[in-house]
């Protein structure tokens, strides 16, 4: 970390570099771009009185990183396991088209924040823990999706794993994704709506 300038300035410079990379991806034809975990919660100052200033520049840095794309390009972000209920309004202000959230280990408890704050964009709570080699059963995925639907409208809900799949081998990934897709299709057919 640089110590010759404020952290907010360093983050702004990183956001500008990220914005250039996002623009290059879009120019190459990519229509869905994830700007990964901004670690907003992890960077919070210890003194709560310093939170508003920090949250303002950190959210603005994320928005700067994503501001160069066309409306037709979908911007995703990802929130790792974190207790973010007390900053949910600021996460919504990031204005990512889709926020994916690691939720399987909390059994969708992290979605409780959306009871109190309405997020206008789409949300993808993870339905299986990619840090475990265990392949989730269809009933387990269905249970988690039903819990998510208690909080989120089906048209706003994405069905996805908790995070990237780099920690798993191909046999596990194929089996888990097969179960995830099968369960989503079954629920979609049963509900007759647009479960993502």
Give the helix/strand layout.
Layout: H1 7-27, E1 32-35, H2 51-66, E2 74-79, H3 88-93, E3 98-101, H4 113-116, E4 122-125, H5 138-149, H6 170-191
Parallel strand pairs: 1-2, 2-3, 3-4
Helix pairs in contact: 1-2, 5-6
Give structural notes.
It contains six helices and four strands. It is of the alpha/beta class and 196 residues long. Strands 1-2-3-4 form a four-stranded parallel β-sheet. Helix 5 crosses helix 6. The longest helix is centred in the C-terminal third of the chain and has 22 residues, at 170-191.
Distinctive features:
single chain; 196 residues; 4-stranded parallel sheet; alpha/beta; 6 helices; globular
Averaged pLDDT: 91
Question: Structural class per helix/strand content?
Answer: alpha/beta
Percentage of β-strand residues: 5-15%
Helix residue percentage: 40-55%
| Unreliable stretches | none
| SSE pattern, N- to C-terminal | HEHEHEHEHH
The strand order across the widest sheet is 1-2-3-4
Q: What's the alpha carbon Rg, rounded to whole Å?
A: 18 Å
What is the approximate shape?
A: globular
Number of helical stretches of at least 4 residues: 6
Number of strands: 4
**Head-to-tail CA distance between termini:** 39 Å
Largest beta-sheet characterization: 4 strands, parallel
């Amino acid at each position: 970390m640089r110590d010759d300038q404020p952290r907010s300035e360093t983050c702004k410079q990183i956001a500008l570099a990220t914005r250039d990379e996002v623009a290059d991806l879009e120019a190459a034809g990519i229509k869905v771009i994830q700007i990964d975990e901004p670690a907003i919660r992890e960077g919070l100052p210890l003194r709560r009185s310093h939170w508003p200033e920090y949250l303002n520049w950190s959210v603005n840095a994320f928005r700067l990183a994503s501001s160069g794309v066309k409306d037709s390009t979908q911007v995703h972000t990802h929130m790792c396991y974190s207790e973010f209920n007390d900053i949910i309004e600021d996460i919504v202000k990031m204005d990512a088209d889709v926020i994916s959230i690691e939720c399987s280990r909390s059994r969708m408890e992290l979605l409780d924040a959306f009871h109190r704050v309405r997020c206008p964009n789409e949300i993808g709570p993870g339905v299986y823990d990619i840090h475990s080699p265990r392949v989730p059963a269809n009933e387990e995925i269905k249970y988690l999706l039903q819990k998510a639907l208690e909080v989120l409208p089906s048209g706003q809900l994405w069905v996805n794993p908790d995070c990237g799949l780099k920690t798993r081998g191909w046999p596990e990934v194929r089996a888990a994704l097969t179960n995830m897709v099968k369960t989503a299709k079954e629920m979609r057919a049963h509900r007759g709506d647009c479960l993502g």
